[in-house]
From TrEMBL:
Gene3D superfamilies named among the record's database cross-references: 3.40.50.2300, lambda repressor-like DNA-binding domains (1.10.260.40)
Descriptive protein name: LacI family transcriptional regulator
PROSITE patterns noted in UniProt: HTH_LACI_2
All residue ranges annotated as the HTH lacI-type domain in the record: 1-46
InterPro entries attached to this UniProt entry: HTH_LacI, LacI/GalR-like_sensor, Lambda_DNA-bd_dom_sf, Peripla_BP_I
Keywords, alphabetical: DNA-binding, Transcription, Transcription regulation
Taxonomic superkingdom: Bacteria
GO molecular function, one term: DNA-binding transcription factor activity
UniProt lineage: Bacteria, Bacillati, Bacillota, Clostridia, Lachnospirales
Transcription regulation as UniProt keyword: yes
Amino acid sequence: MSISAKELAQKLNISAATVSMVLNRKPGISEKTRNLVLDAAREYGYDFSKKWDTAEEKGSILYVIYKKHGTVVADTPFFSQLTEGIEQACKGKGFELQITYFYENKDIGAQIQELSEKNCQGILLLGTEMDVEYFQPFTRLKVPMVVLDTYFEELDCDSVLINNVQGAYLATNYLIDKGLGEIGYLRSSYPIGNFEERADGYYKALRHHDLPTSHPYVHRLTPSMEGAYTDMSEILREKPPVAPAYFADNDLIAAGAMRAFKEFGYKIPEDISIVGFDDTPICDFLEPPLTTMEVPKKRLGELAVLRLLQKIAGETKVMIKTEVSVKLHERKSVKG
């Protein structure tokens, strides 16, 4: 015989309204109280299927897209596919998906208040452009939350992201194994967490092969195709030393740099080999097609949703960092 919500409230000596809000996955309840009710509900055999069988009763998930400058988080295939994975997972699990934007240059307090008033069961926070100090206000929100596409060492929060260190390491190691000589780095001029981790992977590969980590082949470029092209063109006008191979922080940087290199008379891959990161559709349309690190973007979104649903259901209290592995997708931009 399963216990009723009213009986559960009496056992816990808390209001029936509070128990009802937890069991119906309503916002506005502290994580401590939510876990208390869910733990007791499972212990006393509460029948969750009565509450959570239909999409209407499961409610909604709020997808918050954080924007600092919008240069990285833009309308690109990467984020379109990531969002598609989130949408498919929510639909498959019977949850409605709400999407909203959060702007760093606007009133933070007012935006947090708006989020707190949303009727949602959990929040997916796209933190690609977020710095750690700006995450703190989000801790005031009283619903389960998972941070997507970034990780903060200083904070205890659930995160789902790409294994950036691994990807950059594999890309750089691939170029080294090709025997191309010194390996340069087309590095993002925007210091977001993902790119900093890719820098760690790049330098880790150099150290592994006893190669110098201090060299003139690191070029700071805007992480967009047009921006990278403009920046690389300005650098090449100064006639700097050029490496025979480069790892680029993302495909857009690689594409912009390739255009600049070719305009200055370099052939790809005969003179310069390049490996990108993300495996966006543009890779197939470049000349030559770009070798890159393939990221399972839809799966990344799906995993974030699944982790959030575990938290909503009260299945775990342990914070987890989930990193999705990447793999090399060879095309024609690397010599040999």
